[in-house]
Design a protein that fits this description.
Immunoglobulin-like; 1 helix
């Protein structure tokens, strides 16, 4: 592999990380934008003990339903919701108004907790 290719790939890998600038032992908060028909970002990773805040930024009605049923949020147009993730795992969520399951549709998301 050419040196510039390795450097480019390393940079892309780092750009995809959602690193935290908090000190070890402190929790970190990730923000997810609930836009019209999409969550941004759709997938992100955090550390166990971190929190995710979903912020409604669109004009359409959206709910937030987790596959594990913890922290579900009723349909709303504005506001925010928070959920802590104390245990490592994959947490799938969706808007039931715009996605029929946790795998397909425009409004699905995943929080990977490490």
């Amino acid at each position: 592999m050419r040196p510039w290719t390795r450097l480019l790939l390393s940079g892309l890998a780092l750009a995809g990380c959602s690193g935290s600038s908090t000190a070890p032992g402190q929790s970190h908060t990730l923000s997810v934008s609930v836009r019209d028909d999409v969550f941004v970002p759709k997938v992100d990773s955090i550390s166990a003990g971190d929190t995710v805040t979903w912020v409604w930024n669109g004009v359409q009605l959206h709910d937030l339903v987790f596959q594990d049923s913890v922290g579900n949020v009723a349909a709303q147009v504005s506001g925010s919701a928070r959920r802590g993730f104390p245990v490592a795992g994959l947490y799938h969520y969706r808007c039931t108004l715009h996605s029929t399951d946790f795998v397909t549709g425009s409004m699905i998301g995943t929080v990977a907790v490490y």
